[in-house]
Amino acid sequence: MIKKILLGAFCIAQFSLAYATEIKNESPKSSTVSDNYQKVPKTVIIKTSKFKIRIDLQPNGQYLYQSWGVNSKITSKPSMIIPNGELIPDGSGGNYYYEFNNNGFVYQVWRNYLTDSATKAPYTLMVTDSNGKTIVNQDGRVVKN
User: Cα-flanking dihedrals φ and ψ of residue 23, to 5°?
Assistant: First the structure.
């Protein structure tokens, strides 16, 4: 009888130890800020009231900004190309923006996940000059991503 009790206790201890090892090796899925940014598309095409904008992730990890007039075809030569852009997280809710620098002007394309308005466009183009004055502020809609 004692042998059966000791064998049962030994088996329980072994199963408990094995289960504890499995739990320890599993990494818990936590919602981190970086998880929100994994959903950033490699290519997005946005249309504002005056421009069509294409943003592409390049092999070097930076972004390429290309823009056309609103009535131009994207298959034509872009009117502006700005390389070496970067993706900048904004807060912990998933918002982010792309930032490009060109001849003293800063081009920012904001992704608006969290807004106060249900009618707010999903993207906003902002261009500021070297003095920090905003010269373009246009909402945009996704054409393709």
Answer: -65, -40
